[in-house]
Amino acid sequence: MAGPAQVAIVGAGMAGASAARRLHEAGLSVAVFDKGRQPGGRMANRRDRETGLSFDHGAQVMRAHGPAFRRRLDDWKSRGLVAPFDTDGTVTAVPDMTAPVRDLLAGLDVRAGRTVTALARTEHGWRVALAEAEADRVFDAVVLTVPGPQALRLLAASGCALSGVERARYAPCWSLMLACAAEPSVPGDVLRPATGPIAALFREGVKPGRPEAPPAYTIHATPAWSKAHLEETPEAVRASLLAALGELFGGPVTPLQARAHRWRYALVEETCGAPCLYDPVQRLGYAGDGCLGPRIEAAYDSGLALAERLIADLA
Ligand SMILES: Cc1cc2nc3c(=O)[nH]c(=O)nc-3n(C[C@H](O)[C@H](O)[C@H](O)COP(=O)(O)OP(=O)(O)OC[C@H]3O[C@@H](n4cnc5c(N)ncnc54)[C@H](O)[C@@H]3O)c2cc1C
């Protein structure tokens, strides 16, 4: 191999970003492809330019259980990229939930708005086909960090296989981004109702760096409710969740803006059962929360684990 090994990473969520940063630090050359307009994946944010409203409509908060992510959170804390959210060590990101991923990817070759449609192994390495064009170089290895079912579809479209990916299973989540015309009588800034369709409600304005007015909330429906209403239109889901909120608030909600977003693969229900998957013969790997569990930390640790496998193989 002349020059540093070239690694294509599909997905710029937390797993792709942690893998990319570690590989770059070890001297490998990475290119990160993501179909989204900005990196972050399920650590997502939607900001309305006109109103300034900001919604973290995917993950809201994170917490470290192990040493690697704790060190990373401490670093982000010292640089103001995360701030305490709760007294149990839970933090949120600043100015929005995409900030940690953007930090990990800073200065790297990130190609947003690029959908990977197929991978082809040639005698010179991997070719990456994009919906928009073909990537301009061949790669020594490919890392998939998209949710398991999407990885399976991409592998099938490419005539490849990677054993274990099929084990990852996810529950969906319907999210509602709501700005209220008037201050509602909500009994708290964070609610986790024990019954009904709503799993959690977060007031956006209590997180640092977000506008405090108008009152804005991100609401996540429960996995069971989201599964039962998976194929409904966003308009129908919006109406149902607004009605459920009316009951929770003890009166009708007057939305200034209310938009429903479906996460088809939101929270991991079953994992692959390993920190990452890697086939050294194909030089093809898989990382993501689908390997370790339904948390940002799991995606981070899985990305790191796969990076270490690649470094041992390629560096
Ligand atoms: C509603 C919701 C609430 C959550 N709340 C929390 C929480 O509070 N705390 C917590 O710890 N976790 C939470 N999670 C889970 C957490 O967000 C995930 O575990 C974590 O972000 C997963 O990261 P990842 O890198 O594995 O995958 P993802 O973030 O899904 O990244 C995969 C990326 O791949 C891209 N992609 C997919 N297909 C292609 C393709 N063909 N070509 C190019 N790019 C592609 C996607 O655009 C995406 O950016 C929540 C998730 C959701 C949906």
Describe the structure.
This protein is α/β, with parallel strands linked by helices. It has two domains: 6-43 and 98-168 and 272-314, FAD/NAD(P)-binding domain, CATH 3.50.50; 170-268, Polyamine Oxidase, Chain A, domain 2, CATH 3.90.660.10. Helices cover 28% and strands 29% of the residues. Strands 7-2-1-10-17-16 form a six-stranded mixed beta sheet, with helices on one face. The radius of gyration is 20 Å and the shape is globular. The chain binds flavin-adenine dinucleotide.
Q: Briefly, what is this?
A:
This protein has 315 residues and is α/β, with parallel strands linked by helices. The chain has two domains: 152 residues, FAD/NAD(P)-binding domain, CATH 3.50.50; 99 residues, Polyamine Oxidase, Chain A, domain 2 (Alpha-Beta Complex), CATH 3.90.660.
> Which of globular, elongated, flat, extended, rod-shaped describes the shape?
globular
* Residue-averaged pLDDT: 95
Q: Count up the domains.
A: 2
By CATH's scheme, which homologous superfamily of the largest domain applies?
FAD/NAD(P)-binding domain
Low-confidence stretches: none
Gross CATH architecture of the largest domain: 3-Layer(bba) Sandwich
SSE inventory with pairings:
Elements: E1 6-10, H1 14-25, E2 29-34, E3 46-47, E4 54-55, H2 67-78, E5 82-84, E6 91-93, H3 99-105, E7 109-112, E8 116-122, E9 125-130, E10 141-144, H4 148-158, E11 169-180, E12 190-191, E13 198-203, E14 216-221, H5 223-228, H6 234-249, E15 255-270, E16 277-279, E17 284-286, H7 289-292, H8 296-314
Parallel strand pairs: 1-2, 1-10, 2-7, 10-17
Antiparallel strand pairs: 3-4, 5-6, 8-9, 11-14, 11-15, 12-13, 13-14, 16-17
Helix pairs in contact: 1-3, 1-8
Flavin-adenine dinucleotide binds next to helix 1, strand 2, helix 4, strand 11 and strand 15.
